[in-house]
Amino acid sequence: IRRVARSLFIVAAVDLSGWILTPGLFQVIIALGYKGNKMFAAEQCVVNFINIALAVKFFIYYSTSTDYRSAFQQF
After folding, report:
1. CA distance 7 to 5
2. Global pTM exceeds 0.85
3. What is the rounded CA–CA span in Å between residue 70 and residue 49?
4. Model confidence over 5-22: pLDDT tens digits?
5. Which InterPro entries has this protein been placed in (predicted)?
6. What pLDDT is stored for residue 25 in this prediction?
7. Count of H helices and E strands in the chain?
8. Are 72 and 62 in contact (CB under 8 A)?
9. Residues 30, 74: Cα–Cα separation, whole Å
10. Which residues contact 24 (CB under 8 A, 6 or more apart)?
């Protein structure tokens, strides 16, 4: 159960980081006064933190869980 808890803690920390960084950086972009294309480009870059947080779960589970790793290798 300790391995599962560690995996879940890491996933939760990464998810939380992505979801906290994104709105925080949106506020920075708004404070900088970006408009038009600059605003659009900055928004697209900022959203990557959420996308990375969602996509990295596989790698976290694969590296921390032998059960997950063996199940994936059998697939």
Report:
1. 5
2. no
3. 29
4. 888 999 999 999 989 999
5. 7TM_GPCR_Srsx, 7TM_GPCR_Srsx_nematod
6. 92
7. 5, 0
8. yes
9. 48
10. none
Q: Is residue 61 over pLDDT 80? A: yes
**What is the number of residues in the chain?**
75
What pLDDT digit, counting tens, does each position of 18-57 carry? 899 999 999 999 999 999 999 999 999 999 988 998 899 9
Instruction: Give the C-alpha separation, 60 to 34, whole Å.
Output: 35
Amino acid letter for position 56? V
Q: Which helix (H) or strand (E) segment is 7 a member of?
A: helix 2-32
- Alpha-carbon distance of 7 to 28, in angstroms, equals 32
Cα(63)–Cα(9) distance, integer angstroms: 14
